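Usage example:
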Amino acid sequence: MANPELQMAILHAQTRRHFLRSLGSGVGSLFLGSSLANYAAAADASAGERPNLSFARDAAMPLSQLPPQFPAKVKRVIYLHMAGAPSQLELFDYKPELRRLDGQDCPASFLAGKRFAFISGVPKLLGSQYPFKQAGQSGQWISDRLPHIAGHVDDICFIKSMRTDQFNHAPAQLLVHTGNPRLGYPAFGSWVLYGLGTENQNLPGFIVLLSGGKSPDGGKQLWSSGFLPSVYQGVQCRSHGEPVLYLNNPPRVDRGLRRTMLDAIDEIDRQTHAEFGNPETVTRIAQYELAFRMQMDATDAMDIHKEPESVRAKYGCTSAGSEFANNCLVARRLAERGVRFIQLYHWGWDSHGATAKEALNIGFNDRCREVDQPTAALLADLKERGLLEDTLLVWGGEFGRTPMRENRNGQEMKYVGRDHNPDAFTIWLAGGGVKHGITYGQTDEMGYEIVKDPVDIRDLHASMLYMLGFDYHKLTYSFQGLEQKLTSVKPARVIGEILA
Amino acid sequence: MVRWAYSFGGRYRSALVAFLPILLLLLLVLFFPPDGRQRAEWAQFIGRFHPLAVHLPIALMLLVPVLEVAGRWERFSHLRLASRFVLGLATAAAAFAAFLGWCLARSGSYSGALISQHMWGGVSLAGICWLCWVLRGGTGGLRADKVYAATLTVGVLVVSWTGYRGGQVSQGEDHLTEYMPSILRRVLGISPGGPLLEAAAGGFYEVRVQPIFAERCVSCHGSKKQKSRLRLDSYGWLMRGGKHGAVIKSGNAQGSDLFRRITLAPDHDDFMPKETRQPLTPDQLKVIELWISAGASGTIPLDAIKGLPAGGPVRATTAEVSFPQIDEASAVKARQEIEPAVRKLQDRFPNILTYESRSSTELVLNASLLGLKFGDADVQAFAPVAEHIVVADFSRTAITDRGASAMATMIHLRVLRLAETKITDQMLRALPNLAQLRTLNLYGTGVTAAAFPLLEKFTKLEHCYAGGSAIQPGASIPQSLTGKLVL
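Running the assembly step on the lines above writes:
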């Protein structure tokens, strides 16, 4: 070690924690050893029937596949998140009684002890703006705004008793996607990638596609890897043009030159990793390599023009404003290619009624038209190709909307809208692992509160992990002295009633 | 008594003064006994020093007979002079330790027979120490010496017994005998470890009560884990109780610790089951209550208790999901035979062959990831592990009908995917009767309607995806395939 500066840098990198950890094998172990052994034994005993699973991998292959804890029902997830919280009362939760009471003053008992984002004073009850009809052999009620999805209700499992404890978009979206309303926690997709790895090593295992003109309020944190190594974070791809910017080689650089350059960088990174042991260095190596492999496959996977015209027409890719449709078709292509977690966000469901875009009878209507056909086409396409039986499809927002018409500042508003309601909303699932053509849970006659079988976000997460082959207690990562897990510390419940 | 009092003359008063703290202790114990409730922080804080302080009087009390006996030799006669001083110290230490013990017991939610016995042992010990101290001080002749020797002997016995009881409180009732070798057990006549009592087969306990414990309690109080050293996986263990003593009082449900805990409010510290905080159902509580009230017998017949909630053995109304447990050690053992072959294949075809789960020997093969680079010859390579493959995906690979012979050895296939490959009806003709096959994916292949009869040999087939294949629209689908064929 000739270079004193380098030596100094290495010493600086040794923190108090490194020192304390090394006590276990150094002189300190002479007197700590016996008592630590006891702690370890006690920890083992308390873990009892739940020994930890190991997620250790070859450092060079952080995304390599690991088998699930027990045989999985599904091996991939396509999550269609409707950012802004679509109104369950206009789509899935049929409430004729509310329709009957439309325009009446909201009873005081509905307002006592409640907090609203905008409602003030005494709002009016607001019946569904659209007619409902029964569809499929299962005869489930669905709004006339979703005629295509209505054709597939027999493949769908509605959970009409979802609830959350967040009533603002960003924290509620964080809760839905990371199991925690605060920043810094890994996304569901990151957990799955960490637990299972990904099949196709030439594509990211967790891909995020956005539509609707805006990013969801929760921002990029919704697909961040939190405290997990950042190699597990979601990769946001563009739905037109180059899927990933700067993926292709610059002019006059060929693949061979690129390889030579990467080899040199890798060598330096490997030395750094040997010295400092920082997992982020491994991430860096892995990401360079992934980008190199992606040059071949990503553009092909994301190019919907490789699909025949008939297929694109089925999704509705040919009409104007078809971003969501394009993304749905990309999602199917990615599913075929062994991508583990495909996350779509479609923005614009926050129907307060403050502007035309936010109105239940205008903007909301457009959103329905944008998602109805593509969602149904995706379902049908997956089913036809036999992909649906090992895919879990999730559709839903971050909370529900009130049965009262929003009256911002206590005044009747120009457009019709509803405020946020965290106490009840609808999410639906389809695919392997869930029963088809059923409804789980029930809300009251106003669709305001849950009267039967409430499902917390963590219950949904635990159930999804179960379908992916994990006991949610066991998919853990040691961070800040805690065996962190997706469902956080509160007890969750796998919803056995919806499992196929 | 009077003569002794005179015999130690001026010390009479100081001896009485020294007795005052002990008297005070006696009053505390009599009028404020430990009742199992939790109290002030200070008392608990001080009380926690009891296990520490208690070793002092034990050591001092045991030192005295050593001094007395050793002092009988001329060489060590000076030691006897120290014994009175040591006794004085022991009295003070015993009274102090007993006081701390009372603090702990009174404030730290202790109660029960074990605690009372230990407590009275401690208080008596303080008294006996005091008595020894008083007696040792006198020069009351031979008779007083004998009384002293006897009292000291009693003191040593009391200190041993109290210490043993204390050990039982802190470390469990069988802390001394738990790991006693069976030979020694037999010599000493101690019952062998393990359940003492057995419930009658088909009796009320076995049919109605044990299933409740099995469902709600044994994950923490069972063979694998014994929180508070309580096991509820058999009648014998249940009646033996745990760290806090017996949990069932025959005939008295309200007085049984187990019943008390399961009927508390879920946010109470003592509430059980602690893990989930989901109370037992009212029906389950009723069964347990009736059974305890009827005498908590293990042999009482099934029909002896009236007024039970309707229905058979009580089950939770919700569909609880249990997680399959994995045993990685046995998985390693089971995989021994195929592991080398699997490793070799994984090196040759990275990332397409994995075990189905952490504990399985079943394999999942996804060749579709290799696309057209994967052909008929490559299927042959999987022959060594063919019987272990349960899911095989050859979609979009270069395989043809010639791959059938290699696939035919994968006799345990549950899922076979051949989507968008060049295969034809010939492939299905060449495949054997895959008895486990549930899913067959022929999407976008050259399979025709002529293959319909061939599909009937897969008796467990649930789904056959044949969209985009050479099957003509309007082809008549045989009865046996309706609902299974997806076109």
